[in-house]
């Protein structure tokens, strides 16, 4: 009963293959324009790829390219789509919106409304049943939209940034709700938010430029990121290079000393070996900022040019290109930091994790 | 003029108002001039004469039938033009809109050479025992020919504004294309469909040239109100003016009704 997809779209440089097991929720992370919405449209049948195949438990969704051709229309796929906007049908009440799926599947008016009431109750929206979508707030409308998608009893639920259009108060509530309804349900959720991935997904897939750059269990990917995008999401600094005995050497020749982190995970093939591709990962809180070069115990010290200073919690985040450091506002003021200034980033080797990319 | 106007700033220069007023007058003044010429003491007898009532009844019946035909063929045409993707789509749109700019008499001639006794289809229809030219059916066809573009244009615009997002969601919820059309697309564009139908009705009501050419002017069969007015103008100017006023009143009523219709959900709430 696994969902498998293998699709290419030449014009968009899109080439993705993935699988989602029964009851598994997969989060798709990636920068804007990475092809996340393309992926959703391809799965839902709203966009036809150039080539590839997809199936759910042996049932073919599409098969394109040389050889046999097959195309299952969107309404026969069992892949309900929940988008950024709730897109509730404006001429129907909340109840009839939720009843739309069962009704389309052939249920009687009363039976479909019964199903609708069940799902409205499930999302805490039963009191809104008789309202028109125009009378609902953004958060309420999105809850009703969740109920509508679930009432269609999809084999695969597609959530395309469902929290993106909500205000900061409505989003946490919907996230809790999704956590509740997604448990044990097969779903793909596209998101920008690392919190969504942590709370809702069993596994994450990082999509960049139409290709999967990283995938694995959520905690694994966020704890030991291999792509710069995943590291950014996890709030970590990431430097790529070649593994050496002490750490890694970047393409520019800079050496990063660190701890070889050989805890075998599902994706690590073995201990890091010198000469292979690797990454050095360290949190911004491990970075100190000095005006002159610091020496002493094993540490990395190198000059950088500050590009930005921004508040980060009760700290100041000092950005220098791809790297960042978190220091106290007092320290920042003492050093007189301003963008454009050249300073030294100093990182204790013990706080840098080195592992194969 | 200085009392507070709390509405938002409007960037309309004063001279635009002056030109707009002139434009409005250009439409209203002839109507007023006509009303001034109405022979009020004789008004009721004039519009309730046999010939007048017959013509009015025929006009309303044929216009209703034309509007129905416009909906039956215009809705699919608008859907295909707004949503479909096929070669020759732009050409099809241009030809569907042609009656908007064609002199109606040309349309009448074209219809005559299609459905007339010696026409393209007329010959076969004649053999089947069906005669269309110079019948009430011909009136309906002539009116449909000129009124169809109004419905298509208005509905195609509404369809494009509504977009396909709701339809896509409906499909992923398991609705077949026919169900999507019936339960999502049509309800979403209902205001556009209604105003298109009203425009078609109004255009049918006023149709003259194509009707005269293709259907003739036979009292009770093909002589609609505009034809009756034109005929009366030769002999009885008072009757022509009185009937014209009736036609104006019906048109105002129809257009007024369609604009009073609340646009219940399109588009502000739909955009949420």
From TrEMBL, chain A:
<feature type="domain" description="ABC transporter">
    <location>
        <begin position="2"/>
        <end position="234"/>
    </location>
</feature>
<keyword id="KW-0067">ATP-binding</keyword>
<dbReference type="Pfam" id="PF00005">
    <property type="entry name" value="ABC_tran"/>
</dbReference>
<dbReference type="InterPro" id="IPR008995">
    <property type="entry name" value="Mo/tungstate-bd_C_term_dom"/>
</dbReference>
<dbReference type="GO" id="GO:0005524">
    <property type="term" value="F:ATP binding"/>
</dbReference>
<dbReference type="InterPro" id="IPR017871">
    <property type="entry name" value="ABC_transporter-like_CS"/>
</dbReference>
<dbReference type="Pfam" id="PF03459">
    <property type="entry name" value="TOBE"/>
</dbReference>
<feature type="domain" description="Mop">
    <location>
        <begin position="295"/>
        <end position="356"/>
    </location>
</feature>
<dbReference type="GO" id="GO:0015689">
    <property type="term" value="P:molybdate ion transport"/>
</dbReference>
<dbReference type="GO" id="GO:0016887">
    <property type="term" value="F:ATP hydrolysis activity"/>
</dbReference>
<keyword id="KW-0547">Nucleotide-binding</keyword>
<dbReference type="InterPro" id="IPR027417">
    <property type="entry name" value="P-loop_NTPase"/>
</dbReference>
<dbReference type="InterPro" id="IPR050093">
    <property type="entry name" value="ABC_SmlMolc_Importer"/>
</dbReference>
<dbReference type="InterPro" id="IPR004606">
    <property type="entry name" value="Mop_domain"/>
</dbReference>
<keyword id="KW-0500">Molybdenum</keyword>
<dbReference type="InterPro" id="IPR005116">
    <property type="entry name" value="Transp-assoc_OB_typ1"/>
</dbReference>
<keyword id="KW-0813">Transport</keyword>
<dbReference type="InterPro" id="IPR003439">
    <property type="entry name" value="ABC_transporter-like_ATP-bd"/>
</dbReference>
<protein>
    <submittedName>
        <fullName>ATP-binding cassette domain-containing protein</fullName>
    </submittedName>
</protein>
<dbReference type="InterPro" id="IPR003593">
    <property type="entry name" value="AAA+_ATPase"/>
</dbReference>
TrEMBL record, chain B:
<comment type="function">
    <text>Part of the binding-protein-dependent transport system for molybdenum; probably responsible for the translocation of the substrate across the membrane.</text>
</comment>
<feature type="transmembrane region" description="Helical">
    <location>
        <begin position="15"/>
        <end position="38"/>
    </location>
</feature>
<dbReference type="InterPro" id="IPR035906">
    <property type="entry name" value="MetI-like_sf"/>
</dbReference>
<keyword id="KW-0472">Membrane</keyword>
<dbReference type="GO" id="GO:0005886">
    <property type="term" value="C:plasma membrane"/>
</dbReference>
<feature type="transmembrane region" description="Helical">
    <location>
        <begin position="127"/>
        <end position="153"/>
    </location>
</feature>
<keyword id="KW-0500">Molybdenum</keyword>
<feature type="transmembrane region" description="Helical">
    <location>
        <begin position="94"/>
        <end position="115"/>
    </location>
</feature>
<feature type="transmembrane region" description="Helical">
    <location>
        <begin position="58"/>
        <end position="82"/>
    </location>
</feature>
<keyword id="KW-1003">Cell membrane</keyword>
<dbReference type="InterPro" id="IPR000515">
    <property type="entry name" value="MetI-like"/>
</dbReference>
<feature type="transmembrane region" description="Helical">
    <location>
        <begin position="184"/>
        <end position="202"/>
    </location>
</feature>
<comment type="similarity">
    <text>Belongs to the binding-protein-dependent transport system permease family. CysTW subfamily.</text>
</comment>
<protein>
    <recommendedName>
        <fullName>Molybdenum transport system permease</fullName>
    </recommendedName>
</protein>
<dbReference type="Pfam" id="PF00528">
    <property type="entry name" value="BPD_transp_1"/>
</dbReference>
<feature type="transmembrane region" description="Helical">
    <location>
        <begin position="239"/>
        <end position="259"/>
    </location>
</feature>
<keyword id="KW-0813">Transport</keyword>
<keyword id="KW-1133">Transmembrane helix</keyword>
<dbReference type="InterPro" id="IPR011867">
    <property type="entry name" value="ModB_ABC"/>
</dbReference>
<keyword id="KW-0812">Transmembrane</keyword>
<feature type="domain" description="ABC transmembrane type-1">
    <location>
        <begin position="56"/>
        <end position="258"/>
    </location>
</feature>
<dbReference type="GO" id="GO:0015098">
    <property type="term" value="F:molybdate ion transmembrane transporter activity"/>
</dbReference>
